[in-house]
């Protein structure tokens, strides 16, 4: 798939990027290697050695912060992608300028490492909230299918402990400040059988989604508009039609009683690794079709692609 090269993709959670071991990620068909240099700064290069195309992620990170290819040992600088050292090369010899890795823009904020394929793009700004729960899931569907599922029925790809999503939309999918926003009615998952005949919808799920990257800020609210849960989900298209979703979540106000206890469980949020085909077959693509129209309208309008991150 071809991607807008000015977009910033949250390709890793901060703790996944270390100076111990390179991390391999994809942005669409573009392989990227991430690591931290000796100053602790996250770096991103194309994950192909300019010498003989070996993945740099199979190499190692040296004490001086350079990444070293595991094949013939050439070392590259993360900021520029320049070749810095070749083993056993004499001092007076010069490096051929041809051997330079593609360096990408990197920005680290709010617990995510974001990469932009355009190294000159301006980094986005975002708030620095605290998150207690984290996860990374490779979902076996395309980026577009993942977003369509999120709009049409979040239960296809998400689960929140003790909460059931309803088909009822409180506010239609609409555009607000360049984000796609919608609100869906939810119920507490009934504690006792029969589970299907609960007529109350005291909860709402508010989602604010970037129309291109699909980065979503999700808030679960109770009937008094208290925020019970906030989460950021960052889906990034990876190779072979897989979508890598990295997420962070934090509980809001502490809700007493059994319901609240369910939400306060070990991990309140689950991102499913695949979509249930039977459920998908019977899900009407009503919201996602509207989302496609909105997305196209937003794409036709002049965009500020850098302002893609919303505060929590
Ligand atoms: S392929 Fe990387 S140094 Fe030769």
UniProtKB/TrEMBL annotation:
<dbReference type="InterPro" id="IPR036922">
    <property type="entry name" value="Rieske_2Fe-2S_sf"/>
</dbReference>
<keyword id="KW-0408">Iron</keyword>
<dbReference type="InterPro" id="IPR050584">
    <property type="entry name" value="Cholesterol_7-desaturase"/>
</dbReference>
<feature type="domain" description="Rieske">
    <location>
        <begin position="8"/>
        <end position="106"/>
    </location>
</feature>
<dbReference type="GO" id="GO:0016491">
    <property type="term" value="F:oxidoreductase activity"/>
</dbReference>
<dbReference type="InterPro" id="IPR017941">
    <property type="entry name" value="Rieske_2Fe-2S"/>
</dbReference>
<keyword id="KW-0560">Oxidoreductase</keyword>
<keyword id="KW-0411">Iron-sulfur</keyword>
<keyword id="KW-0001">2Fe-2S</keyword>
<dbReference type="GO" id="GO:0051537">
    <property type="term" value="F:2 iron, 2 sulfur cluster binding"/>
</dbReference>
<dbReference type="Pfam" id="PF00355">
    <property type="entry name" value="Rieske"/>
</dbReference>
<protein>
    <submittedName>
        <fullName>Rieske 2Fe-2S domain-containing protein</fullName>
    </submittedName>
</protein>
<dbReference type="GO" id="GO:0046872">
    <property type="term" value="F:metal ion binding"/>
</dbReference>
<keyword id="KW-0479">Metal-binding</keyword>
